[in-house]
Write a structure and sequence with these properties.
α7 links the parallel β7 and β8. It contains nine helices and nine strands. The chain is globular. The strands form two sheets. The protein has a seven-stranded parallel β-sheet, sandwiched between helices. The protein has a two-stranded parallel sheet with strand order 7-8.
Length: about 290
Amino acid sequence: MKNFQGKVAVITGGASGVGRSLAFSLGRRGARVVIGDVDKAAMEQTLADLAAENIQAVTEFCDVTSVESLNAVADRAAQEFGGMHLVFANAGISAGESGAMWDYSDKDWQWTLNVNLWGVINSIKVFMPRLVEQGEEAHFAITGSGNGAFVVLPDQPIYTATKAAIQTITENLHHQVTATGLPVKVSALFPGPHVVETGLFNSGRVRPQNLQKEGGTQNATGINSVEDMKKMAAEFGFELQSTHPDEVAEMAVEGIEKDAFWLLRTTEDTDDRIRARAAMILNRETPVPAMVG
């Protein structure tokens, strides 16, 4: 998709982080944007900021764990702009689990699986039939993570599990649309190459009331921002690098212009870790934990 002028982009989790940056990157190229999110205040602010740049946009409350809510977003895109051409299944959270896996709250598992995994499944069920039915050039991008898709970081097992599952779903969706000759391209989007400066670590701000944990902190890690991660890294004697979400959005849009499946930018260190993991499997070596760096 080389021309975004007049195209309609639907972005879940579009009021902050990578989703918000995608809205601006696409809007500046002439696209019209539909932002879905559970954070109403962030949506209002994003809509005002887009309007200040004369970018056409609308917002719609969107809980990706609900097919009904996602259908409302799709309907809004049809009503306001006549359909859609790009969909970014981008909404995601981290429950902030910590400690022994067998001690995790069921609510951490439920919330993370509901949003990260079922959110993608629901988005495919809602948006793909509409994109196929339109019969026009279209693109469906799913936000994953190298943590799960490529390597296994030991500090967030629930999050990692969802991102591993998402990658297999994304690749299979790509295979299916390619095999049937559909006009929809599928991409796997990996924010990076470093830890991305988003609100992922402060996901508790949007945790549903029915999935609040009893008697204590919702985020057991004590890390609520990238800055917290950097401070912790400094205590262990190394500098943690980070990436602004605007860089991720530009990388993603440039990849979509080339119909690329892998919307991915890595460092030499990341590439080495991927090679090391492949070698570990081929050589039947016992896994050792990868570390954030």
